[in-house]
Structures are given as structure tokens and as C-alpha cells.
Amino acid sequence: MEKRSTYLDFAENDYKFFMYNFDHEVFGTSMAALGQNICERYLKHIISEYAQPCSVEEEMNKKAVLHAHSLKKIMRYMKDEMQIQIPSSVSNAMKIIDGFYFTTRYPGNDSFIAGEEEIADAANAVKLTREFTLDIIKRLEE
């Protein structure tokens, strides 16, 4: 069994699975939830590896955002705490799918069965978030 230990490792693994299914038009409502989760993992990798808290309170904030399932909250942390600007094309794509993690997994007032349009929105967000993340990692490693 291959050991994977970073958010990036998990994101890349699920990215391959997601894109294979998307490219072969294998659609299911869980794809929408997975798309959001992949975006979360890409962003959380940046936070996990590069955020440098300077106090106990900042460390607690970092831990809290690493447990969050809100892309808006994660993006806000990156902007406010890490001074990382996310391009509007990337943030807008993620805002469209923010909430899919819960609303496409369980029945409830806001739940729905994702169709091809929502899954395409998720695929777009995943692709843009991946490109953004890999670019940020490259810049931060230089």
C-alpha cells in the first residue's frame, strides 16, 4: 500500500478519479460533493504547508480552517491570514460549488440531485483550483 500523507497527495489522487469519470461521462450526484472536496484539499494543502501562525490563537484559527468545509471560509483565510490573492476566475468557480459537499450528500431542505451542469461546474472549479494551487506551490517553493 502506497503511503500518502498530504492534502495535495489526496487531492491529486481524487483529481485523477474525478476527471477520468467526468471525461468518460460517468455522472453521479456524489461527483459534485467530490469536486468541492478536491478544491478544499488543494487549498488546505497550501494552508497546511505554508501558513505560519505566530500565536496560539492563530494556530487555533489554522486548525479550524483545516476542518472547515466552506470554500469561502478557506479562501478568506488565505487572503486575510496568508495574503494570498485568489484570481476571481478561480474564486468565482469555487463559490458556485461551495455547499455541494453537504447539499448533494444528504437529504434536507437545501439538498438536490446534481446533474451534468452542476458536475461540469465542479469539474471547472477543480481544474482551476488545481492550476492555481500548483502555481502557488511553485512560487512559494522558489
Low-pLDDT parts are none
Structural class: mainly alpha
**What is the end-to-end distance?**
32 Å
Query: What is the share of helical residues?
Result: over 70%
Rounded to an integer in angstroms, the radius of gyration calculated over CA atoms is 15 Å
Number of spatially distinct domains: 1
Tally of helical runs: 7
Amount of beta strand: under 5%
H/E topology pattern: HHHHHHH
Please, what is the average pLDDT?
95
Largest sheet: none
From the spread of the alpha carbons, the general shape counts as globular
At the first level of CATH, what is the class?
A: Mainly Alpha
Corresponding CATH architecture:
Up-down Bundle
Write down the CATH topology. Four Helix Bundle (Hemerythrin (Met), subunit A)
Quaternary structure type: single chain
Can you give a write-up of this model?
The protein is mostly helical. The chain has a single domain (7-141), classed as Four Helix Bundle (Hemerythrin (Met), subunit A) (Up-down Bundle), CATH 1.20.120. Helices cover 72% and strands 0% of the residues. It contains 7 helices and no strands. The protein has helices at residues 7-23, 29-50, 56-66, 71-82, 88-97, 100-103, 116-141. Helix 1 packs antiparallel against helix 7, helix 2 (29-50) packs parallel to helix 4 and helix 5 packs across helix 7 (116-141). The chain is globular, with a radius of gyration of 15 Å. The relative contact order is 0.18. The model has no long low-confidence stretch (mean pLDDT 95).
